[in-house]
Amino acid sequence: MRRLAALAVLAASACSTGGKGSVGPPTSTSTAGRQAVVAASASTTIDPTAKPAPPASAAAAARDIARTELAVRDPSVTGAALALAAHQQQVAYRAWAVRPAWDNEVLTRVPLSLRGAATANMTAARRLRQLVRTPRSVMPAWRIVAPKPADELRRDYEEGERAFGIPWQYLAAVNLTETKMGRLRGTSNAGAQGPMQFLPSTWARYGRGDVQSDHDSILAAARYLAANGGKRGNMSGALHHYNPTATYVDAVKLYAEQMIADERAYRGYYNWQVYYLTTLGDAWLRVGYSATTSRPVTPADLR
Per the domain annotation, does 159 fall within a domain? Predict the structure, then answer.
């Protein structure tokens, strides 16, 4: 199986580097989470359709990471406020991931309770970026659609866990890494399709129903991972069957481990967006983007 998003969907994951239980929940309250959202958007109306500005310094990155990590973990932060906080979280990690010189200062400034997650976010982003050989000079022939509601997707992941023994967090992590929870619709260069990116030959063996269905595709992924070692606890081996690159395996495990450590991390991941790395910079492919053929990238694509 091949990831459609290997060259485009490069979002850092807020993940635990030490595995299950190594990073406890941040010492935050609902008030702190709400204040984090207000602070993160103090100069603008909360608008999830506006592209957040990336941090321009290590200090700004640490500030954005701290307040957005608190916000996505606060159940009282919902709707547009949650979408904006999660998007800012994603953008901050993307900016940091390509600036190793920021490492020490960011980690010094981020609260201790968030430091493990912050390290893992950056680590996963750098792992995924290694899969991108070169930025692209043309925009992709893809469609970007609204994802299935978060609660419904989670029920699909949990059904996969019950049926095949694959923890729901791993199914969510694969879905996130492949197509940003089903937002990205298109066929990879290798011919992979659907929200979990199945080759036709693999779908013929493990799929049931419609490869474009979130539910059917998620259950097929659970069936595939279970058959390739996941049910016996060898998730690294199962993920390597899914995509035979160590960097992919590392990133997916980091996503999953963070959700295992604190399931509220899923709220942030669900709201992460599709970004496409171009020769001019990061292009955010918003819901509604649709192209049947490639075309040259322009500065307008980066707005």
Answer: yes
